[in-house]
Amino acid sequence: ALTFKGGNSADVLPFPPQHFMGAIGQIPPQGPVLDGERSLTLLKQLPTSTKNWAMRSRVTAVSQKRSGVVVESETVIVDKDTGEECARLGNSVFYVGVKGLQSAGESSKVVIDIPQRPADREVSEIITLERVQTYRLSGDYNPLHVDDDVAKAFGFPRAIVHGLCTLGHSVRHIIKEFANGDPGEVRGIRCRFSKPVLIGERITTKMWRVDVTKVLFRTCKYSVLDVVMRQYIAAS
Q: Residues 6 or more apart from 128 whose CB is under 8 A from it?
């Protein structure tokens, strides 16, 4: 079975991207590879043609934990015509079960405190199998997200939702509630994945506006204690 999109086809971008595969190729897999943190900062309007931009990536930190290793990387999208940076993307992944590596680099992990008051807005939604199957068009064909038997082999009760699919639901909730439905208002996103979401589970995005340009959010399932994602989204 095809796990990831690859080759030279242009229907979707290759997944995982080649720079990422180069970084993880030295790490022997011991278990599932899970999303840790993601961030996106838009610095200027992105070029409309892929011929006009380039991606430059590097591994920024490796952190050995008791139950695995975290690898952090940064990707910068550059306008080739002007040399200007258009966007910065941060990424960390957790390799479950990998041990024996030496920590290196400086982690970009940020701890953000959620206000100790009721959320300003809340939106709940069920993540259906249809949505997860549609999200696979991003290029991530990992069977962990659609095959219950594969998920059980890795210790999950059934297939889990892609981390970025869960993030997409929450960001859409925030755009609807605080940006009048206009994604162009978003200038930056940062999140930390705390726990996987199973297909068919209901998530609730709790949102707090802390100033004119920033909304903090926490995504939960079932209760405020069962947190699956936290951090913030900044709007213009």
A: 199, 200
Task: Provide the domain limits for residue 57.
Answer: 13-109
Beta bridge partner(s), residue 92: 37, 72
Report the distance separating Cα 146 and Cα 132, nearest Å: 8
**CATH code, 143:** 3.10.129.10
SS3 236: coil
181 shares a domain with 132:
yes
* Segment-wise mean pLDDT, segments of 10 residues, the chain, 236 residues: 46 49 57 85 82 88 91 92 92 88 86 89 94 88 90 92 93 94 91 91 94 91 65 63
CA distance to 57, 102, 149, 186, per residue, from 208 (Å): 33, 38, 38, 16
Element (H, E) at 175: helix 163-178
Q: Token pair for residue 209? A: 């506006």
Please tell me the total number of residues recorded for the chain in this structure. 236
Verdict on whether the full-model pTM lies above 0.70 = yes
Nearest to 97 by CA among 31, 195, 155: 31
